[in-house]
Amino acid sequence: MEQKLEKLTDNVNDIKNLIHTFNKTLENIENRLAQLEKVDSIEHRVAVNQIDLSDIKEALDWIEGVQSSIVKEIQQVKGQGNNQEIQQINRRLDSHLVKLAKAEEEIIILKSK
């Protein structure tokens, strides 16, 4: 039981690290998008700064899948003790999805111009 709890704790910490890394990636994407506005040619901006949003979406799906399985295991082992921490992770994932959608919208707008 102790090992399962430690494993689950490690998994939660891994998810936190992944979210932190994802945060840095999103900041880099936002910086790159900000730089796009400074370039004169829209076609040049899109060609030079290609961002593969599908990889980011796959990473988010994977993180959500891992998170949901860990949430179920934690609830089985500890009940609702870590519910607040899990809700915080869910809120952060939601905010990442919003940022991702905004970045995708900006790219679509730039491509359409």
Describe the structure.
By secondary structure, this protein is mostly helical. Helix content is about 85%, strand content about 0%. The radius of gyration is 18 Å and the shape is elongated. The termini are far apart.
Which helices and strands appear, and what pairs or packs with what?
Layout: H1 2-36, H2 42-48, H3 53-78, H4 83-112
Order of SSEs: HHHH
The span between the termini is: 58 Å
- Count helical runs: 4
Q: Give the C-alpha Rg.
A: 18 Å
Q: Determine the strand fraction and express it as a percent band.
A: under 5%
Weakly predicted, low-confidence segments: none
- Would you tell me the overall average pLDDT? 77
Shape call: elongated
Tally of strands: 0
Structural class category = mainly alpha
Major beta sheet summary: none
> Roughly what percent helix?
over 70%
Oligomer: single chain
Pick out its properties.
single chain, 113 residues, mainly alpha, 4 helices, elongated
In a nutshell, what does this entry contain?
The protein has 113 residues and is mainly α. Helix content is 87%, strand content 0%. It contains four helices and no strands.
